[in-house]
Please model this.
Amino acid sequence: MTGTATAWNPNANDQVSALAVSGGTLYAGGTFTSVGGQTRNRIAALDAATGTATSWNPNANFQVWSLDVSGSNVYAGGSFTTIAGLPHSGLACFFPSELVDVPASPRVGDLTFTRLSPNPTRGRARISYSLSQSGHVRLSVYDVQGRLIARPVDEVRPAGNHLTIWEPGSRGLGLYIVRLEYAGRSLAKRLVVIR
Model:
């Protein structure tokens, strides 16, 4: 090692005070409002190889001082009062497959999470997805702590477009993660339940 910095430079426009790595993703927190070539308010996920910002954009309203990745969750701590459009007083937990969406080229076994509506919802949520070929599909709903709340689909489905209705019922208000698994891949989206 020579001690010379490499060309890797996400170019944060202000202080970075926290870093956490998970696979090929580097999570950063601080006081910056731009990093990796994109507007990102105080929290971002970067491609660890290139330094470019991913589509993850929780948009904290104030500083993020600490980050940690544990199992399937990303935790953030700081002085913020809202993050990801929801009230959080200094602490937040994210399900990373929802928040880090790196697009891939279409291939056999691909799936598309086409729609989750209405979102936010006061009742029934329509979950639309499309499969490139027949296969086993698992559609699960998790709370923000990663606990399984419901599994509306867990069966073989044919290729094509599909619609599933999920009713939150008496479950609490807040953020839920709807996760779709098929052919070794998974996609997730956030669903907000309001009254």
In short: The CA atoms of residues 41 and 59 lie 5 Å apart. The mean pLDDT is 83. The radius of gyration is 18 Å.
